[in-house]
Amino acid sequence: VRKLFRLAVLVGLAVWAWRTFVGGREPHERASISYADGSSLVLEPGSPQFERFAVVARAVLDR
Amino acid sequence: MDAAQALAELKELSSQVERAVVLDGKGAVLGSTGDDQAATDALARAALELVEAAGDLHASAGDVSLAEVELEQGGLFVLREGERTIAATTGPSPTAGLVVYDLRTCLRALDEPKPKRSRARKAQPQEDEA
After folding, report:
1. A49 and B57 in contact by Cβ < 8 A?
2. Which terminus of chain B, N or C, has fewer Cβ atoms within 10 Å?
3. Is the dihedral of CA B81, B98, B9, B50 positive or negative?
């Protein structure tokens, strides 16, 4: 039981460290569109559609 | 309410909005925050480009109601209602729901009639009868 408890603590610490030091550094970037008919799209970074949006946004945000 | 007044209220209301512009149905600028004309034109152009890009992804090209892009350096929001469009930039990690709510409030305020100023009557000084 002790070994199991230690293992659980170690896994918990590893997940916390990963999320704090590695996951948190990744920039949160996304784009989403809503249409009048109620439909919507979420574009993830890396897709060509997202890059088209990002180029337009950067032109304004980098000023 | 005119665009300048609505945008002034938006700036007061939202601490996240850095710059905003209101466009009419033809893409002409109705009003903007700030005095930098080049920045206003750039934001207006970006809003139209974003709507065009969003329209290309959907069959009903003209029916984009909201487009938002969140990047490391900030956010760009474009909201359309009826003939009018409002675009705004924010700093990094904006609270998207709040920004959209504030932009919608600003756009709807444009349709409302200007509140009438009620003139407060000056209180008549009461004469003391001695």
Report:
1. yes
2. C
3. negative
Q: What's the angle, vertex CA A62, arms to CA A61 and CA A63, rounded to 5? A: 95
CA distance B34 to B37: 8
The complex's ipTM works out to: 0.78
Give dist(CA A21, CA A5) in Å, integer.
24
Whole-prediction pTM value?
Answer: 0.77
Both structure tokens of B79: 């909201």
Determine, for residues A33 and B70 on separate chains, whether the beta-carbon distance falls below 8 Å. no
* Number of CB atoms found within 10 A of residue B29's CB: 16
Residues of B in contact with A49 (CB under 8 A): 53, 57
Q: How confident is the prediction along chain A (63 residues), in pLDDT tens digits per residue?
A: 889 999 999 999 999 998 887 766 666 899 999 999 889 999 989 899 999 999 999 999 987
Residues in chain B: 130
Q: Rounded to the nearest 5°, which phi and psi values hold at B89?
A: -110, 150
Cβ of B36: how many Cβ atoms within 10 Å? 13
**If you search the block for the tokens 């009438």, which residue do you land on?**
B116
> Given an 8 Å threshold on Cβ–Cβ distance, is B72 in contact with A29?
yes
